[in-house]
Specification:
mainly alpha; about 170 residues; disordered N terminus
Length: about 170
């Protein structure tokens, strides 16, 4: 694959950066701009801001001892991050278990029923009776809706079968 290197002026780069800021570049053009900004040494406030937004760090050349130091530091950081993530997962798991246990114990010991009728709070047996009546109404509605759906499905099936038979 033959690679051609094209030089871009600072004005052209700034124009592309402004188009990027205005969200007027396609994904391919954004990728090309990112590639150009990574490889070029062009510098202006707009170009620096675009590099920051794209997450482009300047190219740094290091000698072997600096590279090995950075690699060791990154390995330690990776282990630290992994350890912190594992610890956070364990804490979340334990917290969830405690929360579930407490909620199960609380609901087993005391059942509270609260209803609002015309904006007024009702509790105790009256609220429980209102809730049970609403549940019964809802179940009746669901049965009616299921029956209606079955009737509609039967009509559609009959229509489709009739239509199929008349075409043959």
């Amino acid at each position: 694959m033959k690679q051609t290197e094209q030089h871009i002026t600072i004005q052209e780069a700034e124009q592309l950066c402004q188009l990027y800021m205005d969200c007027k570049l396609s994904l391919l053009e954004e990728a090309e701009l990112e590639y150009v900004l990574m490889l070029s040494n062009l510098n202006s406030p707009l170009i620096r801001e675009t590099r920051v937004l794209m997450g482009i760090t300047p190219n740094i050349t290091l000698n072997n001892s600096s590279q090995s130091f950075i690699l060791r530091k990154m390995e330690k950081r990776g282990f630290l991050i992994w350890t912190l993530r594992a610890t956070a997962c364990v804490i979340i798991l334990l917290g969830s278990i405690l929360l579930i246990r407490n909620s199960i114990n609380n609901t087993a010991n005391e059942k509270i029923c609260i209803a609002y009728v015309e904006g007024r709070k009702v509790s105790g047996e009256r609220a429980k009776d209102i809730a049970e009546a609403d549940v019964v109404k809802m179940e009746q509605f669901m049965r009616i809706a299921t029956t209606q759906q079955a009737l509609e499905n039967a009509k559609v099936e009959k229509f489709m079968n009739h239509k199929t038979h008349t075409r043959k």
